[in-house]
Amino acid sequence: MHINRRQFLTTLGLTTIATQIPPGIAQNPLTNLKPPRLKIGDTVGLVSPASIIETQDIEDAKQVLKKLGLQIKIGTHILDRYGYLAGKDTDRAHDINTMFADQSVKAIIAMRGGWGCNRILPLLNYPLISRNPKIIMGYSDITSLLLAINARSQLITFHGAVATSTWNQFTVDYLKRILFYGELVTMENSAIPTGKIAVITPGIARGKLIGGNLSVVSAMLGSSYLPSWRKNILFVEDIGEDIYRIDRMLTQLKNAGILNQISGFIFGQCTNCKVDDQPAFTLMQVLKQHITPLGIPAWYGSMIGHISDKFTIPVGVVVEIDADYGRITMLEAAVI
Questions:
Q1: Which residues contact 185 (CB under 8 A, 6 or more apart)?
Q2: d(Cα 246, Cα 113) in Å, to the nearest integer?
Q3: pTM higher than the cut 0.70
Q4: Quick one: how far is CA 315 from the chain centroid?
């Protein structure tokens, strides 16, 4: 995932001490915590766990969330700057831990992705998060938080819009149905050019939805912050990657023993992914090389990723997928 880096002259904020959790913490892969659903009037905490943001980003987010009937609480270090990061690691982690501990906050939304979430995973207070289950949502680099919290705190997390996303009707409709109404939603692409799917392998499969940004998932391999892949459905997406890099990352997942464990595969959108060198493979050729031999239902093109129209994907929820139609059907509610 290619990210533009911006340089800054000052470093703001004081370091705080965050609780570190030993990597050997025991988890029951069959148990998931579900956060309470959102209601009109609830307070949403905004945090910057990765790259820096500007004051205007906060103002824009306030307007969007206000239209949903939500109140806003701002993370203490949300505007901090530390090189290309939104503050020091301890401070970014502190804001997340504080939002989970704050009983007035009912959901946490990341301002944006970029880079930085992997750096703060050892600083999150996973037992605290388990004791205070609430919605946490984002995508791109926020994948690290979603997967680590699901794995270590057993909490359902949400791969969806960040605060600086385009909150259009498509995105808001799916968000409301899943986070506010607690519906068992069937997710199908909209009838637009970017909504076309390409079947890799037909068929139907069931399992927990696990995944996120492919570059980030690859960067987490070998760590203790990933959920179980066995009999689950892997979804990925990416942006700005040459096709050979997608090949390299899928090869990494294969060599790590992940691809041969999953029951289904969804590649959302690979936005601005291109063939850089000649001769080359197309993206679909690469996907078929890696996924077709697995013999599992799989397709490309789901509305997941760096696009305007986004599904809200509950990480850790059991679903049924139908690769022939590019359909994801939730078999359990993601909130209580």
A1: 174, 177, 178, 329, 330
A2: 19
A3: yes
A4: 8
